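Q: Structure for this?
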Amino acid sequence: MSGRILLLNGPNLNMLGLREPEIYGEATLDDVVALTREQARAHGCTIDAVQSNHEGDLIDALHRARGTHIGCVLNPGGLTHTSVALLDAVKASELSTVEVHISNPHAREAFRHHSYISLAARAVIAGAGIQGYAFAVDILAADHVSRKISN
Ligand code: DHK
């Protein structure tokens, strides 16, 4: 079951493994990409991985993936809680998007409890550590199979 999945990581996720390991763990962004690729491969899918600390780059990546990818695994980092523009880009991309958080934002500061992105998310996975990225791939791949069967 082939299909391209966009793996999009936002601000500060390039610092995984170094940054607040008691919250985000010791795995690096390379580990996240490798895990996500492995899970995608098990479903016959491929991953295009993008990380940026710049909102506009994330928006551009979503626009580029419109019509070419079966879905997006998105950890928007801090933009989760602030960015209407990123929400609009998720909608404009028409990509089925699974929002992933390594930590559980609901168990943290109040400003992390609201997500703009969730308004457009197919699903939200939070607090499962980096394994959440693999679960997100499972959801997108399963949806892709269902769509193929019903078409
Ligand atoms: C990552 C961040 O960088 C934070 O700004 C979010 C999210 C939580 C995570 O848990 O992956 O609040």
